Amino acid sequence: MSYHQFLLFAGLAIVLAFWLPRFVSGREPAASALLILAGLVCALAIAEPPPLFMPIADPEWWEILSELTVIVALFATGMRLDVVGPLSRWRATWRLLVVAMPLTIGAMMLVGLAAGWPLASALLLGAVLAPTDPVLAGDVQVGPPTEGGEHPVRFALTTEAGLNDGLAFPFVYLALAAVAGLTMTEASDWLLRDLVYRIVAGTLAGGVVGWLLGQVVFRWPARNILAATGSGVLALAGVLVCYGAAELIHGYGFIACFVGGLVFRRIEVEHDFHGNLHLFNLAIEHALTAVLLLMVGAALGTYAGWVRWEHAAIAAALVFVIRPLIGWVTLAGTGLSPRERFVTAAFGVRGIGSIYYLAFAAGLASIPAVAELWMVVLVTIAMSAVVHGLTAGAVLSHIRADGNAQPEPAR
User: Fold this and answer.
1) 102, 126, 129: which is closest to 112 by C-alpha?
2) What is the band of 26 on the pLDDT scale with cuts at 50, 70, 90?
């Protein structure tokens, strides 16, 4: 397939994926599954798939595209949150981050060990698949800025997806250290540098950049503010500055992007320009996501002969058992109703973040069983896109706002 043929295919596939569902549903189309299917068909139809379809052999472009997509999505996710107080609103989020995610990593590691994988690969499996995805989870997250009245379920899923991508990074680094043979000194370095310093540095960098960007856009100079221009490209600038600043001081850029968007949103919270910036970010996010989903499908088609029942079983265990069960238990006592607990636990979407982590790790070290890891990740993303993508809209439409989710002013 030539470059221009791929462009033609990609354009047609994206149009069809967003257009065809409108014949059968009045909801916004869940195009993720159709994009993956289109990529799969494309790869099966051509004799020699290009290197772009083969992440095992050439993960570089997968890492770059997924990294850009995730950081744009994280900043946009932070900007969506109209109401962030009181602290009790975050109770479910902290449970999901501090309890559910480590337990999910451990459970997936045990699954990998049971499958006969080396310890480092099993740990990496848990690290790349435990975080929920800020990119493909749009249907389960809160709405655009200035809407207000976020439901507790949507708030929990949004904030979890915004933070757990960055919080999974220490475990990726731990798996990479295990590949090389972890010593006590390296374990101490991991604890202080990867688990503590980089989280704190990313949070501070995002907060400072988000606040400064808010002043530049909305307040300085007072008589000729930048927000009056209506230029949405400032949202992309904010993403790049947050990410670059955090990585420059060796902090986690993913955390910085979410925190930066969150803090930026607190400046002039009622200003309509927040909506303009969010729409611009969303357009970039959707474009990059569509290309990556086509690549996921194409990779599955290219490696179709490599997919075994074990890969599907591991993916199904995460999507249908491990995440829902751990999430359900973890959320006990958070104030969510049984139905809300189930929805929050079950709709932990897996996606682009997992691609980035695996491509990042594969680019730094020779990972044992790396082909098996790619197969499981690709199958999991496809399964999540189908299961969550086709059910999220209908399920969440039946979740009614209770007393904790009545519309209230953004702050």
Assistant:
1) 126
2) low
